[in-house]
Design goal:
This protein has about 190 residues and is mostly beta strands. It has one helix and 16 strands. The N terminus is likely disordered.
Length: about 190
C-alpha cells in the first residue's frame, strides 16, 4: 500500500510541474522500502519532456505522509533495481551507469549519497531482478546477459566482494521482465517473469 501511495503521488504531479515537494514524473526508477527509516526510497529514472530525455540522480524518501529530497547522486541511473539489506541497514542498487548501457555498477545508498561498491565493465545485462536474501546474507541478481536475441539467463549472488554465478539455478527462458523477492517465512527467493 505504501509503494502504491508513493507512486500515486508521483503521477499526480503531471509531467511539467517543478519538483519542489515531490519527485517529478519519471519512468525506469527504483523503489524499495527502507526498514531502518520506515520509509520508501525512490532513486533515479528518466523522463521524456519536450522531445528530450531528462535523467534523474535524485534520491527521495516517502514516509507515508510527505516526500523528502535526501540528495542527488553523482550519476543518474535508469533501468536499475534496488533492494534493502536488512543486516547492514543499507539500500543496494544494481544496474547500468551510463546512457548507452555499456557500464554498470553496484551502489550502496546511504542518506542522500550513492557509494560505488563494485564496477561492471562491458555491462551486457538487458533485464535485471534484484533482491536481498536475509537468511544467507546475499544479494541475489537474476539477469539476461548478451546481445539482443542471444540473451542468456543467469543467477548470481553478491557476497560483499564480488558477484558469483550460482551453479544449477539458472532460470528458464521466462526470466525476461522478471522480478524477485525473498520470502523469509519459507526461506527462499520467489521469481516471476514473462
Amino acid at each position: 500500500m505504501l509503494a502504491y501511495l508513493a507512486f500515486a503521488s508521483i503521477l499526480a504531479l503531471g509531467p511539467r510541474q517543478a519538483a519542489t515537494d515531490a519527485p517529478p514524473v519519471r519512468g525506469h526508477f527504483s523503489l524499495a522500502y527502507d526498514e531502518k527509516t520506515a520509509s520508501t526510497i525512490l532513486y533515479g529514472g528518466v523522463s521524456l519532456l519536450d522531445q528530450h530525455i531528462h535523467p534523474y540522480g535524485d534520491i527521495w524518501s516517502w514516509d507515508g505522509k510527505a516526500w523528502t529530497l535526501l540528495g542527488t547522486a553523482s550519476f543518474a541511473p535508469a533501468g536499475h533495481k534496488a533492494a534493502y539489506d536488512s543486516k547492514r541497514s543499507t539500500m543496494e542498487v544494481y544496474g547500468p551507469t551510463d546512457a548507452r548501457g555499456k557500464s554498470g555498477a553496484l551502489y550502496s545508498l546511504s542518506g542522500g549519497a550513492a557509494t560505488k561498491m563494485f564496477a561492471v565493465d562491458n555491462y551486457k545485462s538487458q533485464d535485471i531482478a534484484f533482491a536481498y536474501d536475509s537468511k544467507r546474507d546475499r544479494m541475489m541478481l537474476v539477469t539476461l546477459d548478451g546481445a539482443e536475441g542471444m540473451w542468456t539467463p543467469q543467477t548470481l549472488e553478491w557476497d560483499g566482494k564480488a558477484f558469483w554465478p550460482i551453479g544449477g539455478s539458472t532460470p528458464g527462458t521466462n526470466a525476461f521482465s522478471a522480478s524477485i523477492s525473498y520470502d523469509p517465512i519459507r526461506g527462499r527467493m520467489v521469481m516471476y517473469g514473462s
